[in-house]
Structures are given as structure tokens and as C-alpha cells.
Amino acid sequence: LLAAVAGAEERPNVLFISVDDMNDWAGLTRSGYSGKVHVPNLKRLGSLGMTFDNAYTVSPVCCPSRTAVMLGMRPSTSGIYNNGQWWFPHLPKAVSLPMAFRSNGYKAIGAGKIFHHTAGFNPPIQWDNFQRLLFNDDPWFRGKKTNYPWSKPTKNPLGYPFSGVPGIPHEGDWGTIPGLDENKYDDSKTVDYVVSELGKDQHKPFFLACGIFRPHLPWYAPKKYFDLYPIEEIVLPKILEDDLNDVPREGKQLAASRRDDFIRIKKHNKWKEAIQAYLACISFADAQLGRVLDALKNSKYGENTIIVFWSDHGWHFGEKEHWHKRTLWEVCTRVPFIVVAPGIGKSRQVSRQPVSLIDIYPTLIELCGLSKGPKLDGVSLVPLLENPRALRQEPAVTVSEERHVSVVDSRYRYIHYRDGSQELYDRKLDPHEWRNRATDPKLKEVKQRLSGFVPKKWAKPALSKNAFQFNPQTYRWKHKKTGRVIEGGREP
After folding, report:
1. HEC letters along 39-58
2. Contact (CB, 8 A) for 478 and 465
3. For the segment 130-184, what is each residue's pLDDT rounded down to a tens digit?
């Protein structure tokens, strides 16, 4: 059946949907949140294919996670470890997913946040068309800084900060943007483009990428999504006092990062409001997903389109005394991940095998029958799509920019820090990862086995963005010291 799909005259299309910073709070078999999460469209998508209930990010921060997915390389292979590195001038011969599809006769199109933002991270040479959405003329607000390709410096609007937390970074704000209609939000416009493409007559099979920004902060969403979550129904995370006592120094340093935000939020009694805003953004993202699914269903492509849905990493809300991402624990590394492959397996399937987002690239290569391209770090998930009970030997490996590593199998999480210190958790008996058993002699064999998956070689880090002069109009990088020029603009 797989061969029939991959070799058919009309090859399958791919609808590639990413969200940002989304915890797996609405898992089909185990939720990361104890309260209600309103995600009818995510549940609808899960009912169509395979939900991977033990899926993990490749890196717990945006740029290296997304680069890993799109290039099929872990940071330890690519050298992309943090948000301050452009991948293209570092790896100009790398074959990204849209490039692989284009070289196999597909039309590669998309919009939104697929790579880490647009300018500099997503050169046009990869795409037939990538819609760069610029919202400078819209009456909306992202902050005073030009953090995003679509924002320019503006004055703080009346009522800012909408969260009511003075001193919190502008990116950490939340609320409803005054006077902004839902259809003017960035994610709405991204989905407008995707819906439009699904309504067209496409003369080639397509790889269509839809990058939904939410629930990345700032947590801005229309009021009706906040109304789904009455503040009295918000559930705070379970937290163990002195949870970090058995965590090595390196882990404590990760947990301490951005803790000031958490302290301010608690000081102003806004902990529940922050979680409410995050939930509102999840539901807003879900509504945009619903628009895409409706458009696909009403198009001519519904029966021959593979859907991949993933989040780049999770987010802490006080667990391990942390408020942000970048850690190697469950709450930050586990992500929602769904694959719908028509003709492969059954609907409403769930796999509990540990898998990684690094496996997306080889999975799509096999499902679509693409010619073998670059050497990839991941392993195809097609055997699991065909049989969710199939055993998988590879654990899920997550790498941080500090070269700390997490390895997860079906039961345990092993963390190896760069100074040699370790953590080991029995996730079956200790789902909150409160008891570090790295020194338990009974688990010595487990620790030794999982430590074998820690990368032995580490790629040299890519240069910082500051090493280049970059022209966003021509997508031309010039190394400031050597004068070397790399072109990433349109093909001639």
C-alpha cells in the first residue's frame, strides 16, 4: 500500500503545519495540563491519523529546533545551537525539506514561521513562493523592538502592558490588543494565504508549509479565546518544594534563567492569568488549524494530502522553578506531534513509542517516494504509522545550546550535562521528574545504555549573525572579515 501511494502518478501532497512553544497540554492519552484545554480541531486532526504521544523536540529553543526539522540534522551535526545563528551562510549546500521536494518535482510554498522567523533564516531560493507577511500598516502591536520581520518600532499603545505586570519584558506581555479584529492578527493572515493556495488549481504536487506563531509569547489573542478559560478554572502546575535540591549545578543554572519574570508574575498575583493567556493562544492557534483543515476538506486535495503537525518545543510555567524554555526536562521537551498519511495505517491511532521531530524529514522522504538526498540524523516513522505497536530501538535525543543532552526511551529520561553531571528519572513511577536517580545502583545499566546515545562528536558552532552583513532585500550575506559572499535569493 505504501509503495502504491509513493509510486502513484499523482503523488501525495504535503500540508506541513507548525506551531510555536506549544506544550502537549491536550494529549490524547496523557495531558500535560490538569484543566480543560479547548482544542476541537487538534482533536479532529488526531482522529484522522496517528498521534505520537511520546514525541520530543530536537532542541529546546526555536532556531536550532526548527533548523533540525527542516535540514534533518541535530545541532551536534549542523552547528546551529542557538537563535543567533543563520544556517544558510553556514551550510549553503544543505538540502532543506522544501528544497528536497522542489528537486523532486513538487511546488514548495508557504507562509508564517517555519524556520526561525523569516529575514535571514528562510532564504527564498528554497521556495517557489513563500509569503513574507508584513504587518507594518496594521493597527496592531508586537512591541517597541523590531524582533519580528513584520514589526517596526512603535509607541506603546494605551493600556500597555496589558498583563498588568510592570517591569516584565515587552515580549512577555499578554492580553487582547485593543481594536484589532481577529482577521488582522498575524496567524490569521498566514492562514489566509494557506487557505487561498488550497483553493487553487495546483498543477504540481505541493509541499505547503503553514507556520502558526502562537502560543509563542507575547500571548496576544482575541478576547473570545480568553473567555473560554474563566480564571477560577485555571489550574496551576504541581510543584515540589526544593525540587532542584538533587539537580546538578548545570541544571540549576538552566532553571534560574528568566526566573525574574516568574517572580514578578507571582508578586502581582498574575500566575493564573498568564496560564489563561497561554491557553487562549493555544485555542486561537487551534481555530486557525481548523480553518486550514476545513479548506483542505473542501478542496480537491483532501484525499491525497499528508498532514504533519508539530510544535518546536514546550514551555515552563513554574515547574522546576523555571519560567521559559531551554531546559531538558519533560515539560519543555515533549511536544504535540500528529501525522495523517492517507492509505497508511488507520485513523485514531496512537503510538506511545518515543519519537523525535528529527524523524519528520526521513518520514516524508519515504511517504512521498522522494529520491534519496542528504544523510539524515532521523529515522523514518513509516513502520509506526503502519503499526503503532511496532518496537523502536532509537530513543529521542534533545540537545541544548550548552551541549547538554537529554535521552528518552519508553520509560526513562537520562540527562547528561557538559561537565559530566547527570540526571535519571523513571517517568513511569515519577511522571513529574521530581526524584533524580542518577546515583541509584539499581539503574546503573539503564544509565549506561542511554548514555550511549549522547553525541560523541560536536559540530563547530556556526558564526553569529553579527559576523555578517545581511541584505534582506537580496538575501545576500557578506562575511565582515573575509568578504566572502553567500547568495540565498531567487534562482535565475
Report:
1. CHHHHHHHHHCEEECCEECC
2. no
3. 987 644 444 444 444 444 444 556 677 778 889 999 988 878 999 998 888 899 8
**Inter-axis angle of helices 40-48 and 271-297, nearest 10:** 50
63, 90, 116, 324: which is the annotated catalytic residue?
116
Whole-angstrom Cα Rg for the chain: 22
Note the pLDDT of residue 28.
65
| Distance of alpha carbon 81 from alpha carbon 96, whole angstroms | 17
Q: Identify the H or E element spanning 130.
A: strand 129-131
Q: Specify whether the CB–CB gap between 301 and 9 falls below 8 A.
A: no
CB 54 within 8 A of CB 327: no
Task: Pick the catalytic residue from 62, 63, 332, 368.
Answer: 62
Q: For the full predicted model, state whether its pTM sits above 0.90.
A: yes
Closest by alpha carbon to 317, among 250, 400, 258, 229?
A: 258
Listed as own residue / partner, the contacts of 27-32 with beta carbons closer than 8 Å and 24 or more positions apart are 27/51, 27/53, 27/336, 28/53, 28/350, 29/53, 29/350, 29/352, 32/314, 32/331, 32/334
Residue 102 grid cell: 522542489
Known active-site residue 62: yes
Residue 442 identity (one-letter amino acid): K
Question: Is 86 buried (19+), middle (13-18) or exposed (0-12) by CB count in 10 A?
Answer: buried
- Amino acid in position 323: W
Q: Does residue 332 have an active-site annotation? A: no
Residue 351: beta bridge partners?
52
Per-residue DSSP letter, 183? G
Q: Looking up cell 505586570, which residue turns up?
A: 165
The total of other beta-carbon atoms located within 10 Å of residue 343's CB is: 15
